[in-house]
Amino acid sequence: MRVKSIVNLSHNFYHSASSFSTDSLPNPKISPRTSIAAIFKSFKRKLAAGRLPSTPRSFKSSAETCAALLRRCSCSPRLLAGLALHGHAVKRGISSDRSVFTKLLSMYGECGHRDDRDRIFAEFAGSDIFSCNFMMADFARSGDIDAACSLFDKMPCRNVISWTIIVDELMKRGRISDAVEYFEGCPCHTVVSFTAMINGFSRNGMIFDGLLLFRGMIRIGLMPNEVTFTCVIAGCGGSGEFGLAMSVVGMIVKTSFDQNLSVCNSLITLYIRMGDAGMARKVFDEMPERDVVSWTALLDLCFESGDLKEARRVFEDMPVRNEVSWSTMIARYSQSGEDLEALRLFNLMLQHDSKPNVSSFACVISASSSLENLMHGAGVHSHVIKFGYEHDVFVASSLIYMYSKCKKSDDARQIFDSLLIKNIVCWNSMVGGYSYDGKMEEAMHLFKQLVRKNASSWNAMISGFVHNELYGNALEIFDAMLGSGEAPNRMTLSSVLMACANLPSLERGRNLHAKTLKLGISNEVIIGTALIDMYAKSGDIGSARRAFSMMPEKNEVSWTTMVRGLADSGLAEESLALFDDMRRENVIPSESVFLSILFACSHRRLVQKGFHYFDSMERVYGIAPKERHYTAMVDLLSRAGLLREAEEFISKMPVAPESSTWAALLSGCVTHGNGEIGERAAKMVMELEKEKTGGYVLLSNMYASAGRWRDVAEVRRLMREAGLKKGGGCSWIQIRAAFHAFYSWDSNHPRALEIYDVLELLVPEMGTFYDADTY
DNA sequence: GTAGGGTTAG
Predict the structure, then answer these.
(1) Å from the A467 CA to the B5 C1'
(2) A476-487, pLDDT tens digit by residue?
């Protein structure tokens, strides 16, 4: 109310010069410790003592003082002081002084009173180019590019700065053709307007257009400055145009800009992206001066070289840190799997009074998502609220993802619903969140409401179905995606290939392989790896091998997938040989690759070799064997008939045996006919797995093979009493688009009678089969 | 101490 009345009145004061005193304002209760309060008091004292010049002669110095004070009011927003100054300015007739007026605009804007600011602008602005540019820049900064453009169009005269503001903002929003149109309309260019345009191109992935403009600028005689060079180097580095970057580096050296701080900073990052750690370090070492950006770039260099210890040392020795250096530490520790340390760093950041920004929050929320620890996640959430970022779409999307990963998609939904402005990323996070939490119906419901879907929206659904092992649905929604005209990307294809890998649908997989070739993504690691997995699981190990050998770049997952594919296909020797290749290539084995290796050894009864690999896990690679590895070892011993050793191995395990550990032993006992150990093992299986049939079936098989029919009947009785029924084994075939599944003596198929007739013709002894599994 | 272009993270 107060603000409005002053603003409404101010116009009249300006013209009628009626009496208005700062004393008529409520006395602002400002802490005397703050400098602005002190200045304001001194100003009021001077005013009261009549020491401030008020005659037209000293108009200028009065305006200067007022402008300087107003500036303080917008730097650390002080509305009351600002209002008083506004009143004073009106009274003295200096409120339309250019410097006072722009400060007033800034003060109202910074204090959150944009309506009032816009009103005084409308009343006073007239044709002043300065205040128009100021307002245009502010409209643009706050996201209202249309308001900025309409002001631009209304301005009676403009300068190059007016054009630059518009061009830069249009480029930042990706409106390239509009930006070009305005840029071409500008009658006289400067190095700044050119740089804005060049950088706009490069940020929109059009580095060649940027470089053409860069050349054009030099041709018309405008010399690039340090900002131009910084932008061009960053653009070349970001788009991987290292050859072009080097020719620009030549110019930089010739013009001695290689001594400039910002140019050197961008050069460090360029060399890191080129993979030239030596040159990056050399630039850093030879810089005449360094700032927080240089040190943060060096930090990044350490992480890129995989040297966490050195990074930590650099971080601790840095003369200055800012929120970017903290975010770098948090993000990189999280990427290295050190999520707990990332969270610790975030707390340290708060203790150091560093104010987290959107990116710091995004990093630390992502770290708590990886930990799937609700306590940590909710702790970070409380800081989000404390710092007022809960309505930021970027932060909210990370929170939605974090809660969903912690299986709290209802809490995620609350955040989603509380957002007044939602972008597509929030929608996709929520769809993905439901998928991750296994709530595919809710995911689908939300997905259907999403009017403007992008590739990520479709990917969230597809990977959700895959994650929940609903592979058929994944393929269905993929078909719908293709039907909608949305182009699939690498994420889509890798998910769909994963679905195919788990369905008996090799033909579909081959089609997808062709699609990856068409999209030009077949050479990418993630796609190559998905292809290996799909072919291996579909039984086409030859194609899996080819996909593996054709990969130009392999990572640890690609190797692991191929080793596992071979092992699962019964090619134990080849699998072990590939594992040795993998170690020769210095690829660090994961715990999951050891599982495949132990499996391969087990199938070939390679007891010694198995123990060799098992021992090397901890000794050589520092990987503590998990329950699954111990189970694999029990399986290895049991299959080889070393049942007593297997039982002893279980008793010495440092982790508690799982039901499958005992099942492996029991299975060995069935094969090798050891009833004594078998009974003990069976008892353990049934105890650990009360609702499952595995233990009963194995035990009954063991009795059956020993001819102990009375015991077989007893086990069946026990099973019935426990209310358990064994599910039958199932085979299926695909004919065109349809799957046909068959159980033992299954009569559900519509053409069952014909099938069995044909079968009896082909395999006469089928008719004599007795179904031993039917209880 | 009146308005425009930038480097480091995500």
Answers:
(1) 46
(2) 999 999 999 999
